[in-house]
Every structure is written in C-alpha cells, then in structure tokens.
Amino acid sequence: MTAVSRPAALTLPLQDSERCFSGNPADLKPKTAVLFRTAPLLLDCGRALSDVRVAYHTYGERQKEATLVLHALTGNSAVHEWWPEFLGEGRPLDPSRDFVVCANVLGGCAGTDGPAELGDLALSLRDMARVGRALLDHLGVQRVRVIGASMGGLLAYAWLLECPDLVERAVVIGAPVRHSPWAVGLNSAARAAIRAAPGGAGLKVARQIAMLSYRSPQSLAATQSGQRTPGVHAVTSYLEYQGEKLLARFNEGSYLALTGAMDHFQPEDAELACVRVPVLVVGISSDLLYPAAEVRAGAALLPNAAYWELDSIHGHDAFLMDAGGLPERVEAFLKGP
Ligand SMILES: CC(=O)SCCNC(=O)CCNC(=O)[C@H](O)C(C)(C)COP(=O)(O)OP(=O)(O)OC[C@H]1O[C@@H](n2cnc3c(N)ncnc32)[C@H](O)[C@@H]1OP(=O)(O)O
Ligand SMILES: N[C@@H](CCO)C(=O)O
Fold this sequence. Notes:
Keywords: Acyltransferase, Amino-acid biosynthesis, Cytoplasm, Methionine biosynthesis, Transferase. InterPro entries: AB_hydrolase_1, AB_hydrolase_fold, HAT_MetX-like. This is Homoserine O-acetyltransferase. It is found in: Cytoplasm. This protein has helices at residues 16-20, 79-82, 115-118, 125-139, 151-162, 181-196, 201-214, 217-223, 234-249, 252-264, 269-272, 292-299, 318-321, 326-335; strands at 31-35, 41-42, 48-49, 52-59, 65-70, 100-103, 143-149, 167-173, 227-229, 232-233, 279-284, 305-310. It is an alpha/beta fold. The chain has 2 domains: 23-180 and 265-335, Rossmann fold (3-Layer(aba) Sandwich); 181-260, Orthogonal Bundle (Rna Polymerase Sigma Factor, Chain: A), CATH 1.10.1740.110. The protein has an 8-stranded mixed β-sheet, sandwiched between helices. Helix 5 links the parallel strand 7 and strand 8. Helix 4 (125-139) packs across helix 5, helix 6 (181-196) runs antiparallel to helix 7 (201-214) and helix 6 runs antiparallel to helix 10 (252-264). The protein is globular. 45% of the residues are buried.
C-alpha cells in the first residue's frame, strides 16, 4: 500500500482510512451535483422535487461503465472510510481499473437532500434508485455493476427492479428481498422512541435497539462481558456510547425517512422473477436482523442468483467488522464470466 499525500494547503493529520487508500487523493473529497433541473423527480408519494442536490464520491478514472456502491442506513459515500477491505488496488473495487461511484442517498443527512432541506418526506427505495440513475446520467455512465450491503442491499434490489436496462450484475450482502415483520417491528420500535423523545434522546434509544440487531449474543459475549465502569454492565455503557455517537453524526428526520423507505419496500415475488441479470447474494451466518435462511430464500426467487454465506459470530455488521473471504468472493463475481 502506498501512503497518499495531502495537498500542502491542508494541514489536518491524515486519518487511518486516508493513509490506507492507495488511489488518487482527489478521490477522497466528496463532490456535489444538482440534478432534476429541467424536469422534476416525481416521488412515489406523488410529490415532485426539482434541483435535487446529491453528494457523492467517485474513485478512479471516469468511464462509461461503473461500479456503484450503495451504503447502509447510517453509512455515507466515503467508501474509503468504511470499507477499506473492498476499495483499493488489488481489491474488488479497484480505482486503478474501475470507475467506482457512491452517492449519499436521498433522505439522508450527509450532503444529499433530505428532511433537513426538504422537510418531512415519505420516500421509497425506488425514489433513491431514480436519483442514482440521474447521477449516473450526469456522469456519463451507461452500465453499472451494483453492490450494496444492509440497506444498500435492499436498495440494490430496488435498482434491479427500477433500472433493469442499466444494471449488468449485482451483489447483495446481508439483505432480504423485503422487510419481514421482525425487521419492520425493530424499525417501528426505533421510530416510536424518536417520536416519544424528539430532539435527540429518542434517536439514541433507536440506535441502541438497532445495535442489538446488528450484533449477536456470541459477539457481545466475546466483546462486552463484565464491566468497564464499576456497577455498570459493559454492554450497557457500550450501547449508551453508540447512541451518543449516532446522535453526533445523524439526524432523526433521516432516520424516520430511511427506515420508513426500507419497511415499505415490499416487491412481489413475480417482479423478482423478472430479474434476469446475475446476482450474488450473501447471507451472514449469525445475522439476527436478516437471518441467513431468509436472505437465501430471497435469492431463490431470482432466476439467476448465486448464494454464498459469510461465516462470522459478529452478526449483521460482520460485513463491516469481520469480512473474512467476502472480498475475494465479490471480486471473482464482479469480474464476470
Ligand atoms: C455498507 C455501508 O454503508 S456500512 C456503513 C458503515 N457504517 C458506518 O461507518 C457507520 C456506522 N458504524 C458502525 O456501524 C460501527 O462503527 C462498525 C460496525 C463499523 C464497527 O463496530 P464496533 O466494532 O462495535 O466498533 P464501534 O466503533 O461501533 O465501537 C467501538 C467504540 O465503542 C467503544 N466501546 C467499546 N466498548 C465499550 C463499552 N463497554 N462502553 C463504552 N464504550 C465502549 C470503543 O472505545 C470505541 O470507541 P471509539 O468509536 O470512540 O473508538
Ligand atoms: N452499521 C450499519 C448498520 C446497518 O448495516 C449502519 O450503521 O449503517
């Protein structure tokens, strides 16, 4: 790995993620585009949006074919910060070979328009795919390979249904084809916490509920047994800390909008049977939020899907924390036949 050098004008110390990224230092900066200037975006809820601001990262030289990364619920477009095992020379997303694009989703709070700019929004994952399509048009991209995990995996399914003409192949990691009552129930409890205690306290509880679904009993037994502070269970202070961390970097309106979009994405089996392109679906052995059997059953609804399982004790977030052989699997699949 080659360390990147920062332009002289910037004197902040490099973050670890920046040191590890061996591509063009200019790729580390987010870009913005204002889309839907001449014709509005018609949302599934019936509202029309014009001049939609989208913040995104690209890695590598611009090409007509791209690899589009779809981030998770509280993730963002800075792939180099949260997926270093996947992005870089010799990795599945290789900027020396590929044009990699990742945009912050509509409805989020990382630079793309969301509730903070637009007010309360009833959004769908298909709306987000349409915004992504407009961004690809803006960049001159005509074909994409799509890869997403968690909410990004659900969004990958939305791309397959909404933009079948653009998608060449797709990787779905740790995501079902639609939310189960269990997943909707967890999000409903999180939203109830936000509505019961607006202004921050509710968002912190929402994150605590969600974190439990992102880990597993075995993972917490391995990492959070005992106490850090006398008289306080380690897992209790861990969850409190995770709530504080999310409050510092996220927005409760976005949490409501994005979890609502995930819950309302309920494609029919017959729609999924029309997806013709090759799809690699990855389940996670200890995932409590989206159990591997459910993810596998979703893959079986697609005519041209392969299923692989990541073996980890760390639950849903293993794709971030304990990726094991996943990068190699993804790379082999993205290369194509
Ligand atoms: C496809 C996508 O888009 S994914 C998007 C990626 N998402 C993000 O990057 C944002 C969300 N982040 C995460 O979800 C998590 O940080 C993960 C999954 C990346 C990593 O999870 P973890 O290994 O639990 O690490 P996490 O950073 O959450 O927790 C460790 C922190 O908790 C603290 N901590 C650990 N145990 C305790 C405890 N018992 N009490 C208090 N604090 C604790 C650690 O000191 C550490 O603090 P720091 O963050 O200030 O360094
Ligand atoms: N840790 C992920 C969870 C969903 O994968 C996030 O916060 O977005």
